[in-house]
Write a structure and sequence with these properties.
The chain is of the alpha/beta class and 245 residues long. The protein has ten helices and six strands. It binds magnesium ion.
Amino acid sequence: MTNTDKTVIAFDADDTLWPNEHYFREGEQQIIKLLERYYPGEDLLDKLYQQEIKNLHVFGYGAKGFALSMIESLIELSDGKVTGQEIQQVIEIGKMIMSSPIELISGVTETIEALRGYPLMIITKGDLFDQESKIARSGLADNFKMIEIVSEKDDATYLRLLKKYHIAPENFWMVGNSLKSDILPVAHIGAHAVHIPHETTWVHEMVSDKHASAYNYHELSTISELPALIKREVEREIQKNRSVS
Ligand SMILES: [Mg+2]
């Protein structure tokens, strides 16, 4: 058995398999409309973002933490004048995000089908209930041998998962839209990372081009290009192993 028989392909979920971020940004715009009557500053969006980041270590990622942070911002920026009805509106926005339809990104179904010979995995971060619900609603769950919902995607998380499933870094592929969460930590531990940018990226997930350029990873414009890339790279690995032995 060559190393390449052990290839495992992992996918991020939000904005890699289905769109997600734009629901948050739409919700944010509705909250800004609520807040404008209380807070005239130009820096409203930044204020909301700062509140979210401040609360990340308490609430974690996801729509519930987002809604709670927005309520807190609304209370603070309105000097406590916000009404119960307005708070209810923020809760409704949170519910809207959590129950938004799961529509697969173009090419996802065919790509998963083309790669079904490999053990496939989902690694997503966020609220357990929210993420489980989205995976179930996507109709894709049966295609994945392993599903991991984690609170953070960093070097330590990836190393822990590789150890748990006995996967060597050189046999592990991670596919995702976030350089910060899906790509750079994976490249850093010596595994393969495939970046497929999505139209909307949360500021928290952004990294500078200069920082990213220090890492070795693949970049594709659509997920449909993935099977060909994996085939090419796995075959190249086989050739390399043959020439060594
Ligand atoms: Mg993502």
